Amino acid sequence: MSLTTPDATTVTGPVLTPTDPGYADELAGFNLAGVQTPDIVVGATSADDVAAAVRHARGHGLRVGVRATGHGPVIEGDGHLTITTSRMNEVIVDPAAKTARVGAGARWRDLVAATAPHGLTGLVGSSSSVGVVGYTLGGGLSPLGRQFGYAADRVRSIEVVTADGIIRTVDAGAGSDLFWALLGGRDGCGIVTSIEFDLIGLTTIYGGGIFFAGAAAEQVLHAWRRWTPTLPAEAGTSVAILRLPPDPTLPPPLQGQIAVHVRFTYTGDPAVGAQLLAPMTTAGPVLLADVDVMPVAALDAVHMDPPGPMPSIERGSALRELPAEAVDAVLEVAGPTVASPLAIVELRLLGGKLTAPQGVPNSVTARSAAYSILAIAVPAGPAAELAGPHVGAVNDAVAPWADGALLNFAGRTPAADLPTLWSPDDRDRLSAIRERHDPDGMFRRTV
């Protein structure tokens, strides 16, 4: 099928409908539970393709969604067009300026491969399979974030197609309101086709993880809670209760086990990093430990996130504090004695330079949070129908200490609650900007 817009512009990438071969493959992504069935899917190859697709949608009264790697939310319901950007994966690095410009479909692994030879890195997250653009527009929380801020804090400029089908470049000066809204608001203002951001001169870190026996979850989580306030901004950490499958590719001590995984990164002297981590090394019976100096390009090894597609349901909250009562509440609904479809329940230490914009004003949520929690369940097998309720139960358990959520971790937060992720002033500003740039609500919105 070809797609010609009212102004006779033709999309050069593939245009598919549900009956066309390749339709399902074009929409495939990381989260296999996020199935969508748009009326039309456009495989964009350039910003011009995106603009033409938006103009077509506008002329035919269709809503517009975007899909890059399939990690993020999908647009649902009838009457919509989805733009896939996986072909727009260009990465241009300027080593002298320490900047990178990436297309909407580039993954962090593409960026890391291009920057590592120059001794540079971006604020990559826990998995390099995630798309750079969507991750950054939702804030972009890196294990290095306590020292360097959110990925959104380092963005220089954004190329975006707005609802009128025009390609615009915005930054902190030109189009500053739209720039502010995209960086942290992510949805509802347009389709971002590329971003340019500052890089960091960093080649190695001291990092990795320690796996403890799941039966020791209570003592490990409480030890972690007491330990985290002692850490400097150069250190990042999270702790996760993992229900691991009997996967032969996992190390034998972890196969089919419930484990508690303490993750740690430190950007300074490795000897100092080892001293900082020392209190946690005796927190419980150790199943496996691997913490050492590693290339920044190998940061995936810290969290050991699943590398391939899988179905998942997730939801997270931001926490003002993490008292003992909050840890006990998490253990009550997700601890090792609970029969549960939860694959991961993770607590992350925030703070440091995550508490305020570091480079440019932006609308990133949960700046005042001290910790975040994320629950992920796999909706498969006999307990598939319990996945959603168990994810909800974790977030309900920490509700007394919660204050919103990180947008990228919001997951199944009820739609009515999404606007409350921002302060009333920021919420009103976001709403006004979105109304100005997309008065008909063509793009998916969170506010």
From TrEMBL:
Q: What is the lineage of its organism?
A: Bacteria, Bacillati, Actinomycetota, Actinomycetes, Mycobacteriales
Recorded protein name is: FAD-binding oxidoreductase
Ranges of residues in domain FAD-binding PCMH-type? 34-202
Q: Does the keyword DNA-binding apply?
A: no
Keyword Kinase listed? The answer is: no
- Please report which protein family the annotation says this sequence is part of: Belongs to the oxygen-dependent FAD-linked oxidoreductase family.
Report the SUPFAM superfamilies cross-referenced here. FAD-binding/transporter-associated domain-like
Q: Which UniProt keywords apply?
A: FAD, Flavoprotein, Oxidoreductase
> So which cofactors does this thing need?
FAD
